[in-house]
Structure formats: structure tokens, C-alpha cells
Amino acid sequence: MNTDHARALELIRSAEKTTLRALSGDTAAAGEAHHQAAEAARLLEPVTESGPCQREGCVNTVKRRATGRPRKYCGTACQQAAYWARKAEAA
In sequence order, which ranges of 1-91 are alpha helices (DSSP H)? Predict the structure, then answer.
């Protein structure tokens, strides 16, 4: 079992417990259960395509999912570095 599947299973189990709390009257738990189930579904989506990271100088690939906005960067470090580079160019 890969890490995405293991994390999705963990989220589904947690969402089940949270749903039971929501059914017993905890109103905040309903939104939390929805969030957990949605995150689990996202983790189980197939990765459809890989492409290059958009940060200049990065050689990593970006894994894209079937739905949602396509990622531009391989991770948050590249995203942050690209932001600071754009900000420095504008100054």
C-alpha cells in the first residue's frame, strides 16, 4: 500500500468517527467530516501527467492530478522561491 492510500484510509476512518460525532449533535464535526472525506477522495485520484516545475533552474517534475487546478511547482519551497524571485524583479 503506498503512502497516499494509507493516508486516505486513515482519513476515511477519521471521517467516520467525526460523522458519528456530528450525528450526536456536534455541529462543527459535520464540516470537519466533509473536509476529511474530500481530502481522502483527492488522495485517491489518479495522477494523470507529469511535467517540469515552472521555477527557473528547477529540474524536478510536477505530478498533476485528474481534477483541480494544475500545479506549477514541484513543492512549496519552489513556489516560495518563485514568488520571491518575481517580487525581486518587480522592485
Answer: 3-23, 27-44, 76-90
pTM, full prediction: 0.51
Cell numbers 506549477 label which residue? 72
pLDDT tens for residues 59-82?
998 988 777 788 899 989 999 999
Cell of 55: 521555477
- Radius of gyration over alpha carbons of the chain, in Å? 18
**How far is 36 from 17, CA to CA, in rounded Å?**
11
Q: Are 42 and 12 in contact (CB under 8 A)?
A: no
C-alpha span between 46 and 51 (Å, rounded):
15
